[in-house]
Design goal:
single chain; 152 residues; Glutaredoxin; 4-stranded mixed β-sheet; 42% helix; binds FE2/S2 (inorganic) cluster
């Protein structure tokens, strides 16, 4: 399954740190659902970047991001970590904040343990009115074009 993968480019995040976020996220949730603002508040309270909170939720399917925008990007936060999924979520969240600040259409961000595109990390699923699918080999250089295509 992984025999054609390129060499890893990133270190995985600390899984125990992700696990430690699940309790605070669960406590802040409304029946397992959390808005982006609630996720960011938990991350700030614990003292980690918000991307780690999203990745923790990707490990624990009982916690779900409450949809607030027509388009959603879901990043593989499993083995794709070795090729930069944490950085990709950081970049998605940064671009989302910029677009919200500029009054442009934004999007939801989610993480999931695997998107069944394991030979082409980082896998990112998109889903919205403009279409749906999985983008293999996603990286921050591709984000602006993909976001503009799906959200403008
Ligand atoms: S491990 Fe990332 S898509 Fe399967």
């Amino acid at each position: 399954m992984f025999d054609q993968l390129p060499a890893p480019t990133h270190r995985p995040v600390d899984s125990s740190q992700l696990m430690s976020l699940i309790g605070p996220l669960d406590a802040a949730s409304d029946g397992g659902q959390l808005t982006a603002a609630q996720i960011e508040a938990v991350a700030a309270e614990v003292g980690v970047d918000s991307a780690l909170a999203y990745m923790a939720m990707g490990m624990y399917p009982m916690l779900q991001v409450k949809r607030e925008h027509p388009t959603c990007f879901t990043v593989c936060s499993g083995r794709c970590q070795f090729w930069g999924s944490h950085d990709l979520i950081v970049e998605l969240l940064r671009r989302k904040a910029e677009r919200l600040g500029a009054g442009k259409g934004a999007f939801d961000v989610m993480a999931q343990g695997c998107l069944d595109q394991c030979n082409s990390p980082v896998a990112m699923r998109f889903n919205g009115p403009a279409g749906q699918g999985v983008l293999p080999g996603a990286n921050s250089e591709l984000l602006d074009a993909v976001i503009a295509e799906l959200c403008d």
